[in-house]
Amino acid sequence: MKASQEIVTIRLSEMKDAAQLMELDHLVWNRNTAPEPLHWTSREQFLLHCPPGSQLVAACEDILCGYVGFRSPSGLASHRHVMELNIAVHPSYQRQGIGLQLIEAAKELASGEGIAKLRLRVLSSNLAALSLYRACGFREEGRLVREFYVDGRYVDDIWMCCFL
C-alpha cells in the first residue's frame, strides 16, 4: 500500500465508513500510542462516539488510510473557539504525508467555522506523532508528568496546541 502513488481524497466521514474506521482504530491505538488500546464493542458504540461528519477521512480509492476527528472540548459558549483533534493513520500509510494533509484539512475546516485554536493530546512515548504535530505548527502547551503507567514505565500526557 503506497499512498504516494495514489490520489488521496479527504472528505467528511460517512455512515458507510464505520467498519473501516473501527478497524483503523484497532490497528493504530495500541500501548505505544494510547494509554490503553482502543477496541469498539459494536458499530453502534462507535457511531455514538464518532457520528458521521465528525471526522475528516483520507481515502485512497476505497481504502480509508487515515482520519482526523474533531470536536468541541465542552458545550460552553466561551469554549467554542477551540477544537480538539485526534488523528490516526493506517500503519501501511504512515510517513507518506497523509497525517500532514489531514491536519491541514482540519485547519481549513476549523478556520471556516471561526475556530481560533486547535488542541490535541499525545503520549511522550509517541515520538513519530510528536514530530508530525511540531511540523504542523503545534507546540507543547502543557504536560502531565508520569500521567500513565504503560508497559512498566511512566509516560507523560502532552497537551499541544496550534493557533489559527
From TrEMBL:
Q: Which UniProt keywords apply?
A: Acyltransferase, Transferase
Any idea where the N-acetyltransferase domain is? Answer: 8-164
Q: What is the superkingdom listed in this entry's lineage?
A: Bacteria
Instruction: Tell me which Pfam families the record gives.
Output: Acetyltransf_1
Q: Which InterPro entries match?
A: Acyl_CoA_acyltransferase (IPR016181), Bact_Acetyltransf (IPR050832), GNAT_dom (IPR000182)
The name this protein goes by in its record: Ribosomal protein S18 acetylase RimI-like enzyme
